Amino acid sequence: MTGDFTGRVAFITGAGSGIGRATALAFAAQGAAVAVSGNAEKDVHETARLIEDQGGQALPLLCDVTRSDDVAAAVAATVRQFGRLDFAFNNAGIEQPVAPLHEISDDQWDRIIDINLRGVFYGMKHQIPALLATGGGAIVNTSSGAGVIGIAGQSAYAASKHAVIGLTKAAALDYAAAGVRINAVCPGIIETPMMDRFSGGTEEGRQRVIAQEPVGRMGRPEEIASAVLWLCSDLGAFAVGHALVVDGGQTVGL
Ligand code: NAD
What we know:
- The structure is a single chain.
- By secondary structure, the chain is α/β, with parallel strands linked by helices.
- It has a single domain (about 10-245), classed as NAD(P)-binding Rossmann-like Domain (Rossmann fold, 3-Layer(aba) Sandwich), CATH 3.40.50.
- The chain is built from 8 helices and 7 strands.
- The chain has helices spanning about 20-30, 40-55, 70-80, 105-135, 155-175, 195-200, 205-210, 220-230; strands at about 10, 35-40, 60, 85-90, 135-140, 180-185, 245.
- Strands 3-2-1-4-5-6-7 form a 7-stranded parallel sheet, sandwiched between helices.
- Strand 2, helix 2 (about 40-55) and strand 3 (about 60) form a beta-alpha-beta unit.
- About 45% of the residues are buried.
- It binds nicotinamide-adenine-dinucleotide (NAD).
C-alpha cells in the first residue's frame, strides 16, 4: 500500500505493456482513474480491460509520444473524461540494439532520442498545465540504470536516459514551488517485452542479463510500479528532482 488515490487521475505513456501496464494496474488498484496511452492500440485496450476487470476506471488512448499534438490531445481527452489530472508517468521507451557508437545509424539515433527523450519533454509540456490547473500533482519519468552509468554498446540509449534525468531535475526546480513534484525512476533489468527482445528471449540470453544483477534475478514490472506510486503519493511528498534507482543492485558496485 503506497497511498489512497481514490478520486485522483493518472496519465501513463507506454501503458500497453511491461512497466507501463503494471503501473497502470497499480494506480487503478489504489483507486485512481487511469488514462492508458500508447502507440499500440490493441495493447492499450488490453491494459484498460485488465483495469476494468479489477473494478477500476480506464481510458485507453492511442498516443505516439514523438508527436506533440498526439500528446496534447491525449492529455486533453483525459481531463475531459475524468475532470482533472493528478499524476503522470512518462514511461514510453525503446531499446537500442547492442552496438558500438560508430555503428549506430542516424535513423536509430533519431528514433531513440525522439521516443526516449523528446517523448518525455512533450509529456511534461502538456501535462504540467493540467497539473497546475488541478492545484499540483506529481510526474515520474522513466530513466534507467543506463541513465546513471555508461553501458558498452548502449551509447544512444544511455544518452537518452541520462538526458531524462537532466530534464527531470531542471523541470523539478521550475515547478517545485507550484506543487508539481517531478522525479525519475531508474529501473534495473526488468522482465518485460523489451527485456525479452534485448536478451533474445533465450535461456542463454536471460542468464546473460541476470548475471548483471547482484540479486540473481530480473526485477518484476510491479517492483517498478510500487516505486512510481511511492514517488507520486504523499509518502514521497519531500522527493523532488530525484532519480530513484530500483535495480536489484545492478549499478551499486560500478
Ligand atoms: P515495453 O517494450 O514493454 O514497453 C514500452 C512501451 O512503450 C510499449 O508499450 C510500447 O508500445 C510503447 N511505445 C514505444 N514507442 C512509443 C511511442 N512512440 N509512443 C508511445 N508509446 C510507445 O518495455 P518496458 O521494459 O516496460 O519499458 C518501459 C520503460 O522502461 C522504457 O522507457 C524503458 O526504456 C525503461 N526501462 C526498461 C528496463 C527493462 O529492463 N525492461 C530497464 C530500464 C529502463
